[in-house]
Amino acid sequence: MSVILAIESSCDDTSVAVIRRSEVLSNYTAGQAVHAQYGGVVPELASRKHLKNIVTALDVALSQAGVKLPEIDAIALTRGPGLLGSLIVGVSFAKGLALSLDIPLIEVHHMHAHILAHFAERPYPTFPFLCLTVSGGHTQIVLVKAYDDMEQLGTTIDDAAGEAFDKCGKMLGLQYPAGPEIDKLAKLGNAIFEFPTPQVEGYNFSFSGLKTSFLYFLKKEIKLNPHFIEENLHDLCASIQSKIVEILLKKLEKAAVDYNITQVAIAGGVSANSELRNKFLQQVFANNWTAHIPKFEYCTDNAAMIGIAGSFKYEDGKFADQSLAPSPRLDF
What we know:
Strand order of the largest sheet: 3-2-1-4-5
CATH topology of the largest domain: Nucleotidyltransferase, domain 5
Structural class: alpha/beta
Low-confidence stretches: none
CATH superfamily of the largest domain: ATPase, nucleotide binding domain
Distance between the termini: 30 Å
Radius of gyration: 20 Å
Order of helices and strands: EEEHEHEHEEEHHHHEHEH
Number of helices: 9
Number of domains: 2
Strand content: 15-25%
Mean pLDDT: 95
Shape: globular
């Protein structure tokens, strides 16, 4: 029974997991609070923090799993996409460790792993299924025909939904990452402010114009009332969140209907958003679909999803060699 060590370091989370076949034995993640003061991830600081955290993350993951290094059969790692400096740390560490243990490497696409995180726990989706993958850097609708056969039906032509949450939150004076805080504050308000829906063909998304519209709306209202934001913070959060979720789910429903798919999933960090989850489940019920939503710990960047993706490849003997290099703009 294969035991896979997984390493994820694509952005600002240093994560190590241990997977036995499809069972997650441990999934440890060290975050980086240092970026909050800058309003976003600083790549150089992120790579330095990875260097500091990765050995400790390995020790904790092995200890939690009750597994020793000689028991590891292969090492799965995130090759990309992501920040180059962060990827270099994870890839280099994985390559060195695999060489010292004389075990194979398994390269994993970060976005494929988000989708395959649905196989961390039963019930598993059945192929084919649709997955709406939403994070700070990506927004995609993917037709998943098999673990190694995925077709991207739509993506963002500019900004990702997660970035829209964070940038709009920054306009409201919220700390980075603002997405979770918007979700929390929105529960205390109502979606009373209207914002335009971007007109984008097919299954693609656009959030740049929505951010601009939100900015101009705030500037206009603040001229009339300097305290507009603080007096309407909850309703502003509810309104921008409602619009982002509406945009995402309209495109997902269009794809599901057009492709006659009834197995539908969401993944990525933004899939932890409570309104997205609630509205998604309402949509599933209305259309008589089957929903698949991973646990919160498998939504954000984590090594368990890398290990799950790696376990599929391990069974098929799809290994990488020591010449493997990180690829920050890895094609889907």
